[in-house]
Amino acid sequence: MTFDFSGLDHDFFMREALKEAKEAGERGDLPVGTVIVHADKIISRGSNRIETADNYILHAEIDAMHKCASFLKKHARECVLYTTVEPCIMCLATIVMANIRHVVFAVKDQYMNMDPFIASNPYIKDRLYHYVGGVLKEESEKLIQTYSPYMYQIVLLGKKPGDAP
Question: Where do the CMP/dCMP-type deaminase domain residues begin and end (predicted)?
Answer without folding.
Answer: 8-120
